[in-house]
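INFO  loader      accepted 1 record
INFO  loader      residues=503
INFO  predictor   begin
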Amino acid sequence: MTVQKIKKGRLSPDIDENILQIKETLAEGLDVVVRRFKLGNGQLAVAFYIDGLVNKEVMGLDFFAPLSAADRDGRWSIEEIKDRLLNVGDIKCTDDFALIVDLVLQGLTALFVEGETYALVMEMIKWQQRSIDEPNTDNVIRGPREGFVETLRINVSMMRRKIHHKDFVAETMRVGRYSNTDICLVYISSIVNNDVLAELKRRLKKIDIDAILDSGGVEQLIEDKPYSFFPTIGITEKPDITAAKILEGRVALIVDGSPIVLTVPMLFVEGLQSPEDYYSRFYFASFMRILRVIALFLSLFFPAIYIAVVGYHQQMIPISLLQTMLASEATTPFSTGLSVLLISIIYELLRESSVRLPKAVGQAVSIVGAIVLGQAAVSAGLISAPVLIVLAVTVTSSFCTVAFTDATTILRLIFIIFGWTLGLFGVLMGMFILVAYLCSVRTFGVSYLSPISPFNRQGIKDTALRFPLWELSRRPYDLSLNRRRMGNMQPPFGQEETTDEKS
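INFO  predictor   done
INFO  writer      dumping tokens
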């Protein structure tokens, strides 16, 4: 048969020409299926799909069965097949060959019919996916236990289930020359800060890379301060946290293939917050936040302050305590600063090994390794007991602010060197530099320390302290142009009703 060439990128009425285009475009593989078959009237057709991405049961019942049974005297047009024969929900009709290949690679099925210059592309997607389960991160005692999965559509549907409003927007774009990864921007059009949204879209469009395999790749390519220790883009695995953030005016980025959702912009105070703060009573939530602030301070500065005080400012320690500490330090061969630095690095080694090993083995390594090595080091006189206590308090404190784990790990070592070489002057100098730096950071045009700097009286009600919910009547400053999120509600709420009933 003579194959007539057609305009590049368009379909031919000759099925052999279309099959030739498919073979020239796609590398041959076991999963690329080009199946010839005949309609009930003898008309030739071809189904084009990727094996493993389609639901074969639906394909057999709602696709091949009605087409094979479609008997008539004349030929079937592509419009008649779409309207009268196929029972599939979502069907597109196009003559753009590049678009057809792109959709098939996403899991859709294409139908070519002899004599037609248009093809039908329909959705019969089914692949193996992880079931919705409680996430390993963002653990809560009270609150929803469901977490995101690796499938984009399921994640978007979980967000839809949280927010039933006409202004909910799920906007999709594609990133990656080879991976063609779908990224979904989720926001509420009547709440979102349009300047932040426009800047986010601009940065995403500038991404030019071979592949995006996880949301971490997107995070590193769009953040304001790529060399910053502190994160400027939020991450979460929980739909309720994501819903709460976009209801405050943020934008969520859901990356296909990743259960970690990004939220922009992220403020510093978010690292001190927990999702269950809003599900618990306000005084307990405030107490826990104060503990997290103290924990962040200890995880950053406690080892450095200890080294500085022992090495340079012994007059600040009570005599009885100083004598005990000096007696313990006198039996060790290393200086206090070197001991703290070494034991900190050893802890990081134990932590990294426990993360990389299988769960059952990893937990044993971290627990047994820390106890055995710590006790053996103290018994052998390599380090003093106070140093081990300081490190234990520091490590325990770092677990309270998981969002800042990366930052505290590196900065702690830097402050240890400051305290070791310059004493308290070095530690204070490092504190001032850190605070000044944080004040200068902006994330998508919003101050990182907002609402502390610049100060906002309404926003400060949801920072280190969490005021009662009826006091949080406005959204965070700079995150939304639609600031009011609650009507006038003042307790006691049952007073009016009780008074009316008594009267």
